[in-house]
């Protein structure tokens, strides 16, 4: 669908730039507080949770929440759930998954958003608000030193990602949906356009994901080797 939103236009660049800026501010505030102070991260989790509840409530009230459409089966939906749990609990296993999916997945959705309404409609504003905060939350947890990916996390994240893809792909085949773009590319321009036709872009995406995960872990591998 063609929208009035211009990739890398002023509005888009402002939205993208807000992510590291807000994450840096939150991390700086957190570092000034006691490590046991949890209300900043809990508050961020509550905002994300409330935003999701309001969004699905809006869809339900407008009779748009109909099976099998509008279900939380996109990778960004799963990442949102993971980052909320990570913010509430600081569970290292959950953070391992949330970290890679947010910075390698949700960030890609921000770079090439697949919008279905004109900007700034409620759905597009909610899209950017939720996606921005997910990436912000992942950076905030790392930069505030509250969490970090652990050794072996790349392999575990890839395994979890492929299990999720298998589940969603099966759902797509049964119900003729296109969650995670496993049956067709998005209509708007996206990074998948550079990875070939179906089904080869799915295979290529596997390699891209693995490469991005390795790059995202690299700073922590180097710091770990310095310690040893």
Estimate what percentage of residues fall within beta strands. under 5%
Helix/sheet category = mainly alpha
SSE order: HHHHHHH
Amino- and carboxy-terminal Cα gap: 52 Å
* Strands, total number: 0
Number of helices: 7
Structure description:
- This protein has 228 residues and is mainly α.
- It has 7 helices and no strands.
- α2 runs antiparallel to α3, α4 packs across α6 (153-175) and α6 runs antiparallel to α7.
- It is globular and about 50 Å long.
- The model has no long low-confidence stretch (mean pLDDT 91).
Key structural traits:
mainly alpha, 228 residues, single chain
Secondary structure blueprint with pairings:
Blueprint: H1 10-32, H2 39-61, H3 75-89, H4 92-111, H5 122-143, H6 153-175, H7 200-227
Summed up, what is this model?
Helix content is 68%, strand content 0%. With 228 residues, it is mostly helical. Helix 1 (10-32) runs parallel beside helix 5 (122-143), helix 2 runs antiparallel to helix 3 (75-89) and helix 4 (92-111) packs across helix 6 (153-175).
């Amino acid at each position: 669908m063609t929208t009035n939103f211009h990739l890398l236009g002023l509005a888009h660049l402002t939205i993208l730039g807000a992510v590291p800026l807000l994450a840096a501010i939150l991390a700086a505030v957190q570092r000034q507080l006691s490590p046991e102070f949890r209300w900043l991260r809990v508050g961020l989790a509550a905002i994300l949770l409330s935003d999701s509840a309001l969004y699905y409530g809006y869809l339900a009230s407008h009779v748009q929440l109909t099976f099998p459409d509008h279900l939380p089966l996109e990778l960004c939906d799963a990442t949102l759930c993971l980052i909320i749990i990570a913010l509430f609990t600081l569970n290292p296993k959950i953070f391992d998954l949330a970290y890679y999916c947010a910075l390698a997945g949700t960030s890609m959705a921000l770079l090439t958003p697949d919008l279905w309404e004109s900007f700034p409609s409620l759905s597009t504003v909610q899209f950017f608000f939720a996606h921005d905060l997910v990436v912000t939350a992942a950076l905030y947890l790392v930069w505030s030193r509250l969490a970090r990916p652990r050794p072996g996390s790349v392999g575990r994240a890839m395994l979890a990602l492929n299990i999720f893809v298998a589940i969603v792909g099966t759902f797509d085949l049964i119900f003729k949906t296109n969650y995670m773009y496993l049956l067709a590319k998005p209509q708007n321009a996206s990074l998948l356009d550079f990875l070939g036709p179906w089904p080869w872009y799915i295979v290529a995406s596997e390699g891209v994901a693995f490469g991005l995960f390795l790059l995202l872990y690299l700073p922590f591998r180097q710091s770990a080797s310095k310690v040893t």
